[in-house]
Input
Amino acid sequence: MSDRRPPIAAGAGPAEVPARVVDALHAAARAAESVRPARRDADSVAVTVGDEALNGGASPIATSSARAAAHDAMSPLVTADDAEASSSARSVAPRESVVAALVAAGADVRRDEPLARHTSFRIGGPADLFVAAATVSELQAALRAARAHGYPVFFLGGGSNLLVSDRGVRGLVVKLGKPFDFVEWQLDADGGALRVGAAVPFKRLVAQTVAAGLAGLEFGEGIPGTIGGGLLMNAGAFGGEIGGVVTVLEAVDESGERIDLPRERLGFAYRRLTLPTRALITAVRLRLERGDAVTLAASVADAKARRDRHQPKGHPNAGSIFKNPPGTFAGRLLEEVGLKGARLGDAMFSDRHANFIVNLGRARAADVKGLIDLATRTVQRRRGVELEPEVRLVGDW
Ligand SMILES: Cc1cc2nc3c(=O)[nH]c(=O)nc-3n(C[C@H](O)[C@H](O)[C@H](O)COP(=O)(O)OP(=O)(O)OC[C@H]3O[C@@H](n4cnc5c(N)ncnc54)[C@H](O)[C@@H]3O)c2cc1C
Output
């Protein structure tokens, strides 16, 4: 653990990091130095220690909102109420029994799969069990097996909005395999009805619909991840959101039943979708209107240019760390309190856009979480605004 303790530094951004912010980071790093390595990963530090250091004498708001985000991140299959059950399931769940049930269902199960391979941050410890489901029936069987054995399940999309703990995820992580990457088109004079598999990359769908002269998804140019994750996050940009074009979601609920959820039963909100029941989205039906090819191409080019101008490039990240609070921008607040360019270990608030944390090489989840906690507390204290993470904290913290 001690081979690569922070550089903690203010970055090259215009705002200087206040001395007490740097002090707080140093205190966190010193505390982290003095703790035992985390249970599963000898090179990681239990984040609760970072919490204590960073939260010393501070408002509890930072911790509570980060915890809420962590619980939220376990949705749709594990909620805050289940958190206790999840951690006790960890010690008693018979992993090999679950493996046997999954194998019997035809699933290709991996043990201790490193989740850093599956996240855009390139951060994250192992999943106890990992399945890339090839069919709906395999998915149903996997969910039933996990449920029968009291095993928590986390559903992984493209991993582009996740901070996975260094200790990884206890339970089963399910990802959709290649067969869920499909698009069915029904074009008519006014536009088109599409049925889209949840594993389809968001960016690819944007390019295909624009090429087909269909309007409604241009805002999504440059949003990584899958359609399934995009739906759960109600991904959006530049005034558009994917929720605006959804007619029906196809899903599998936690008891393994296939369900169709019409739009009236879906609660799309800012970077959030509330489902009537916990469920894994397998496909979505969309309605898109016919658009003018030149206008569509111009919108996409504009979105791309704006991203190129403002967003960091070249280092792994998970997009915006915080949601924009009503009436203002998280990035502006972070910049005003001097956190642009602030660094903990190999995690740094981008000096290009303060609401991005970039992984400079070997950042750990604990480093990123330390910066999130610090920013939450600092902005609350100095601006009276409670930042809410947009990135979802997942796993065993
Ligand atoms: C460079 C960069 C730029 C970004 N820009 C934007 C942007 O402009 N706007 C924006 O909104 N986001 C942006 N993001 C964040 C991210 O790309 C989106 O939130 C994306 O939609 C997440 O999709 P994913 O498949 O990666 O989901 P994941 O990160 O894997 O998961 C996100 C959540 O969805 C759940 N989930 C995933 N798939 C399913 C499913 N099939 N069924 C049920 N639950 C599921 C997960 O459990 C998790 O809670 C950006 C990220 C990066 C790295």
